[in-house]
Specification:
The chain is α+β, with helices and mostly antiparallel strands and 377 residues long. Helix content is 54%, strand content 8%. It has a 5-stranded mixed beta sheet.
Length: 377
């Protein structure tokens, strides 16, 4: 039997997943996407995603097409020769900018395709779990593996965007050097008025190319930042989804559907579903029979708690009945400790970092069977 003291007044976004777990070979998660990430998510803390969210981050759509440098008549001076050389270097720079732009548009198209395929696969897995399936269904596992491969491709896309950003940054440095060289050329002796006129045009056009490069770098930075946070969030989702597949139950289904949680009705709950008070457990799991199915209700209760306090920590406490003889007490304590460890492992499977969990034990004269209580602090 499970008894809950649920938190009210939950506000903000609602996440179906927490940050990625540790100690697992594979991972999974389900639900919708929240973009951009919260500060807690960036810090590796559990977050609550919006059930209404549903798309990967939108990448930039700007085309960065540079104009070629203006041509000028040769003046026959040494400065004029320098202007011709700088004009050729600017033309080469603009050619590279155009190549970077082409590469960027290709990467955006590939990334969008990978994201669409990934979400289609995750949606198929989620739908099957919501309808009900057997634990460890091999068909669903194959679908999860396909989603993992798609997410790996999205990670590779980020690496490609980073490589492109580095190349553009190198050209930005070259453009700055060209601009300084053009300005220094004004000080060379032997120039005529036409040389300085062409230098002025060249300086303006170099500035224009530099502005275009900076805009390209800025949009690349935004794309990389959004995609990095998005992929990290999706890895956490796949972690939870893998655990759901293993159980054959969709974690977060109650929240996604808007259905009510299991009924309240415990001394640990305040009337009206009020905020859990100090010393009152958030969840009570009564191990009065074998194979107590506690994962889904536990997940829902903790998710609601984290909606209210994203930085919360949790104490998992094994409680045994007092008054038994010494032998029965030791046996009961051993079993209760195992129950608490199972609850703690389940919470870790859901993605909550072990650093935010603690385990302890106690006795109570008010209970007749072993319990595990989860307290929020």
């Amino acid at each position: 039997m499970l008894l809950f003291a649920l938190l009210s007044g939950c506000s903000g976004t609602a996440d179906s997943l927490w940050s990625s777990m540790s100690g697992k070979k594979s991972a999974g998660g389900a639900g919708q996407i929240a973009v951009p990430p919260s500060q807690g998510e960036l810090a590796g803390q559990p977050v609550i995603e919006s059930a209404a969210a549903g798309a990967p981050p939108i990448l930039g759509n700007t085309n960065f097409s540079p104009m070629g440098p203006s041509q000028g008549a040769p003046t026959g001076t040494m400065v004029g020769q320098r202007v011709i050389q700088l004009r050729g270097e600017l033309a080469a720079l603009n050619t590279r900018i155009g190549q970077h732009n082409t590469h960027l548009q290709e990467l955006r198209a590939v990334t969008a395709g990978n994201a669409q395929r990934y979400h289609g696969t995750v949606a198929a897995v989620t739908a099957r779990l919501q309808l009900g399936t057997t634990p460890g269904n091999p068909i669903v596992i194959n679908q999860w593996n396909a989603a993992q491969a798609d997410l790996d491709r999205l990670s590779s896309d980020i690496s490609s965007l980073n490589g492109l950003s580095n190349a553009v940054a190198e050209d930005a440095g070259m453009g700055e050097f060209m601009l300084e060289t053009a300005r220094a050329t004004y000080g060379l002796a032997g120039a005529i008025d036409e040389d300085h006129r062409q230098l002025g045009i060249l300086e303006d056009e170099t500035n224009r190319s530099l502005v275009l490069i900076q805009r390209l770098l800025g949009e690349l930075s935004q794309d990389i930042s959004r995609q990095t946070a998005y992929v990290g969030n999706e890895r956490a989702r796949l972690t939870t989804l893998a655990n759901s597949i293993n159980k054959g139950v969709m974690y977060g289904e109650t929240l996604a559907s808007g259905a009510s949680l299991p009924p309240l009705g415990s001394p640990a709950a305040m009337s009206g579903g009020g905020m859990a008070m100090a010393g009152r457990p958030l969840v009570v799991i009564r191990f009065d029979r074998a194979d107590v199915d506690f994962e889904q209700p536990l997940y829902s209760a903790l998710t609601r708690a984290l909606e209210s306090r994203p930085d919360a920590r949790f104490d998992v406490v094994s409680v045994v009945p007092a008054g038994s003889n010494a032998s029965d007490m030791r046996r009961s304590q051993t079993q209760s400790r195992r129950n608490a460890e199972a609850v703690m492992a389940s919470i870790a499977d859901m993605g909550l970092p072990a650093s935010r969990l603690s385990i302890s034990s106690t006795t109570s004269g008010e209970i007749s069977s072993n319990e595990v209580r989860v307290y929020m602090r």
